[in-house]
Each structure stands twice: as structure tokens, then as C-alpha cells.
Amino acid sequence: MSFLETVSDWDCAVMTHPGHTRQVNEDAVLSLPADQLWAVADGMGGYSAGDIASQAIISELMALSLGADLTTRTQQLEDCFQAVHQALISNTKLDSQHNIMGSTVVAATCVDYQCACLWVGDSRCYVFREGMLYQISRDHSWLQEMLDSNILSAEEAIDHPQRHMITRAIGASDELQVDVVTFEVDSGDILLLCSDGLYGELDVDCICRVLSDKTTACEVKTSQLINAVLETQARDNVSVTVIQVA
């Protein structure tokens, strides 16, 4: 288990764990509270070097000098994702075995109380407000497409064998499309970024119970969420970022 605690006007904390099944943690996390930038990248476990792909994304994000306004920041993050994507594609073409290195990513950046969420794949961004958990990102996954097309019901989707099949990832196809949502947060809101290792094991009620405790700091909330996952089968790596809006 690795833990990174950060201190800012907005209390925040990050935790990542390999889970009970995977030998390598292919998740990578970023928390830069001074810049109000957070990210979770989840390397694709079905391919080689998923950890290299996720770490490449986080390394490039760390190197950014973010602009002062949200529009500039959003463009910088999208350009960063595109640059990493092209680098991973180039590495794949040079690899004699054509091994794909891919990763999902979700990032959130804020200027005052204006926020932008950018994502590729099925790592998620949520806002917890007044006891309700709102999903900001929308999964790029086969399952989400089936749900949108009413081919599967929500009940059928829970244990579907193809529920982890993603339709977009950095490094996994020639073209990359990044989705962006901008939104406002209020004092008292909580931002939650996570890999699918969290919501794949815990239901919404469990997540809400942890986030609704106003007496605990973000460090405690992240620990409680990770520990709740570890009480299940924890079949995947899991990463959690909790950000309390002051």
C-alpha cells in the first residue's frame, strides 16, 4: 500500500493499493493541491506494461506549468494526454512484438470554484454533495454503450463478463478522443477520483456512508474506502483521491 497526503486550503488525500489479486499495481496517482490538479491513471491489465503507461501520464502531468484560467488549463491537460498517447503509440510501433501499452485516466483541475474534468476510459470523477453522489465522468466502456442502447439493464450489467471492457484508452488506438466536462463546486462538496477498483467492488451506498462523515478528514476517508475494498475480493488495483472543498 502506498499513501500520499497533501495539504492545501482544500483538504485532500490519495491512496493506492494493488488489491488481493494483482502482483503489480498498474494504477498511478497525482495530487498537486497547490495547483489544484489531481489525477488517477489505471494501466490496462490485459496488456504489457500498463504500469509504464499510467506512470507516463502522471509524469507528464507533473511537468506542466498550468495556466491561470480554466480554459487554458483544460487545453494543457488535453494536449498532455494527446502527447502521451502519441508517445505510447510510437513505442508500440517500434516494439518488435507490438505490445500495447495503454491506460485510462481521469483528471480534475479547479480555478476557485470552477472545475474541469477530463477523462479517457472508465476511471471516474464524482461530486458528493448533501448526501448524494453525482458521477461527473461517463465511462468509455462496452458496458456503458450497451446500457445507453438499452441492450442491457442495470441489473444485467452488474456481473456481466464484459463489464471491464473499455472502448477508449491512452495508447490503445490510433486516434484519441478526450472528453471534458466543466462544472461548479460549492463549499462543503467533496470531489472523488478513482479507478474502477473502487466502484467495481463497493456500491454507491457504501461510498456515500464514508464520504458523509463530516467528522473525518480526507486521509481517514481514503483509508476507509480502500479498507472497505480490501474487505471484498479486491480483484483489481484500487486508487482513491478525496478532495474536500473548503
Description:
The chain has 246 residues and is an alpha+beta fold. The protein has a single domain (2-244), classed as PPM-type phosphatase domain (Phosphatase 2c, domain 1). It is 30% helix and 28% strand. It contains 7 helices and 11 strands. The chain has helices at 50-62, 70-94, 142-148, 154-157, 196-199, 204-211, 218-230; strands spanning 2-6, 12-17, 27-32, 37-43, 103-111, 114-120, 124-129, 132-135, 179-184, 190-194, 238-244. Strands 1-2-11-10-7-8 form a 6-stranded antiparallel β-sheet. It has a 5-stranded antiparallel β-sheet with strand order 3-4-5-6-9, covered by helices on one side. The chain is globular, with a radius of gyration of 17 Å. It starts with a strand and ends with a strand.
Mean pLDDT: 90
Q: State Rg.
A: 17 Å
Q: CATH topology, anyone?
A: Phosphatase 2c, domain 1
Helix content: 25-40%
Cross-sheet strand order for the largest sheet: 1-2-11-10-7-8
Shape: globular
Q: What is the CATH class? A: Alpha Beta
Instruction: Give the H and E element order.
Output: EEEEHHEEEEHHEEHHHE
Biggest β-sheet description = 6 strands, antiparallel
Low-confidence stretches: none
Termini separation: 28 Å
Counting DSSP E segments of at least 2 residues, the number of strands comes to: 11
Tally of DSSP helical segments = 7
Provide the CATH superfamily. PPM-type phosphatase domain
Domain count = 1
**Name of the CATH architecture:** 4-Layer Sandwich
Q: In oligomeric terms, what are we looking at?
A: single chain
Structural class: alpha+beta
